[in-house]
Amino acid sequence: MIVTKGLRKSFRPRRGAATVDAVRGIDLDVAEGRIYGLLGPNGAGKTTTLRMLATLLPPDGGAATVAGADLRTDPGEVRRRIGYVAQGGGTTDHATAREELVLQARMHGIRKAEALRRAEQGLAAFDLTEFGDRPCRTYSGGQRRRLDLALGVVHRPKVLFLDEPTVGLDPRSRAQVWTEVRRLRDQGMTVLITTHYLDEADALCDRIGIVDHGGIVTEGTPEQLKQQISGDAVTIGLTDTGATARAAHVLAELPCVRRLEALPEEDGLRLHVDSADTAIPQLLRALAAAGLEPDHVQLQRPSLDDVFLALTGRSPVHS
Ligand SMILES: Nc1ncnc2c1ncn2[C@@H]1O[C@H](COP(=O)(O)OP(=O)(O)OP(=O)(O)O)[C@@H](O)[C@H]1O
């Protein structure tokens, strides 16, 4: 639904100043009905990529098709098939949500009666009916963000671009925005979001591209990315020191165990495995065969933080 090949963009801030290579050849292939996240630190090139795909910025090189339309030769068609919600949104203070929705629909060439109907539907779908006739300046951050989403999809685009959709929102409003975005995906929309929040990428995205210095460093499902770094860690607690020593001896022999650490304080072991889902049954069988019964078994999956740090050497927000 979104395919890019070698997409590039450079800026020259002022005459004589050095060129900034904001995007240095990005390849993407986003399937229909998926939420794809561009995750990266400030200045990585996420917004520039999104703005190019939304036809707001001409690329310097490379090619892209969005919802089947060619970005270079048919930007007008791309524009008709997409919705774009900018960082910080675009609502005015004095207008009401209903007025904004009608105006947006009319700007997409929708007739008045249908625009009114779409506004009503938009208010209901994004839980805005209660204050839909109040000026936008009276809305909370979360309510404004939901209105931004409603405005972005009033013309029923196939693809939605969301730039940092939850910046500045409290946890409850963030969760609400995530719910709305998932709902759009479940209705078949393809969503490309930028974020520098790891938890957001993890919770929301079907696939993630980690962007750094204008390029995609790695790409995959959140699970694949986590596994790429360190697999899973399984902690096993045993009844006493003797049992722990015997368990260590038995488990170290198993091919699925990459590394084994003793946790002497807790009479336990930490095992590093490729995938806990397949390893845990093997570990339990091996322990049972040796007459050992664990007190508890706990799974620790690596976080996207670990992935990000391993790939870029720094944390995504404070870089
Ligand atoms: N109009 C512009 N003129 C000059 N440089 C620009 C312009 N727009 C972006 N840049 C530079 O290009 C690089 C990429 O910026 P971009 O906004 O795409 O990053 P980002 O990953 O979206 O960051 P953020 O998370 O802060 O939004 C940065 O170094 C930025 O300063």
From TrEMBL:
<dbReference type="InterPro" id="IPR025302">
    <property type="entry name" value="DrrA1/2-like_C"/>
</dbReference>
<dbReference type="InterPro" id="IPR003439">
    <property type="entry name" value="ABC_transporter-like_ATP-bd"/>
</dbReference>
<protein>
    <submittedName>
        <fullName>ABC transporter</fullName>
    </submittedName>
</protein>
<dbReference type="GO" id="GO:0016887">
    <property type="term" value="F:ATP hydrolysis activity"/>
</dbReference>
<dbReference type="Pfam" id="PF13732">
    <property type="entry name" value="DrrA1-3_C"/>
</dbReference>
<dbReference type="GO" id="GO:0046677">
    <property type="term" value="P:response to antibiotic"/>
</dbReference>
<keyword id="KW-0472">Membrane</keyword>
<keyword id="KW-0046">Antibiotic resistance</keyword>
<dbReference type="GO" id="GO:1900753">
    <property type="term" value="P:doxorubicin transport"/>
</dbReference>
<dbReference type="InterPro" id="IPR050763">
    <property type="entry name" value="ABC_transporter_ATP-binding"/>
</dbReference>
<dbReference type="InterPro" id="IPR003593">
    <property type="entry name" value="AAA+_ATPase"/>
</dbReference>
<keyword id="KW-0067">ATP-binding</keyword>
<keyword id="KW-1003">Cell membrane</keyword>
<keyword id="KW-1278">Translocase</keyword>
<comment type="similarity">
    <text>Belongs to the ABC transporter superfamily. Drug exporter-1 (DrugE1) (TC 3.A.1.105) family.</text>
</comment>
<dbReference type="GO" id="GO:0005524">
    <property type="term" value="F:ATP binding"/>
</dbReference>
<dbReference type="GO" id="GO:0043215">
    <property type="term" value="P:daunorubicin transport"/>
</dbReference>
<keyword id="KW-0547">Nucleotide-binding</keyword>
<dbReference type="InterPro" id="IPR027417">
    <property type="entry name" value="P-loop_NTPase"/>
</dbReference>
<dbReference type="Pfam" id="PF00005">
    <property type="entry name" value="ABC_tran"/>
</dbReference>
<dbReference type="GO" id="GO:0005886">
    <property type="term" value="C:plasma membrane"/>
</dbReference>
<dbReference type="InterPro" id="IPR005894">
    <property type="entry name" value="DrrA"/>
</dbReference>
<keyword id="KW-0813">Transport</keyword>
<dbReference type="InterPro" id="IPR017871">
    <property type="entry name" value="ABC_transporter-like_CS"/>
</dbReference>
<feature type="domain" description="ABC transporter">
    <location>
        <begin position="2"/>
        <end position="238"/>
    </location>
</feature>
